[in-house]
Acetyl transferase (Lactobacillus delbrueckii), 169 residues
Amino acid sequence: MKLEDFLAHVNSGKRIVDPSEELEYCSYLTQEALKVTMELNNAYHTPEEVQDLFAKLTGSEVNRSLALVPPFYTDCGENIHVGDGALIGRHAMIATLNHKQDPAKRGELLSAAVHIGKRVWIGANVTVLPGVTIGDGAIIAAGAVVTKDIPARTIAAGVPACVVKEITE
């Protein structure tokens, strides 16, 4: 399976059933993400090296304005999209995969892209769940769990994260 085919499948809203070619490929992508995050998190890297590793993790070019402080975690980096000037704090987790709620179908996966806008600041220990879009210029407070879209130029905090303030300056 090719990455483009996998992403077309999951981004169309289709689930990843067990067993399937998509699940097998998703498992491969997860293992690749583990390799890259282990490399990222377990040694010192210059900011440029961190950007290169993040590009490897997401499978796409990364703007040199990205600032990411390891450690960083993800389950499948290829469905993460980050805008220019984003700041991602330590111990951030961006998830793009989720399991079905029905215990009989728990082996099935639901995948959804995460979109982080331009000049977004994600604080330390933030978790972003699948399918979330964080609008340009937003701030996600440390420790937040982002379960739904966050509008541009707002500050979101809490578990689950909700907008607590608009950015007016």
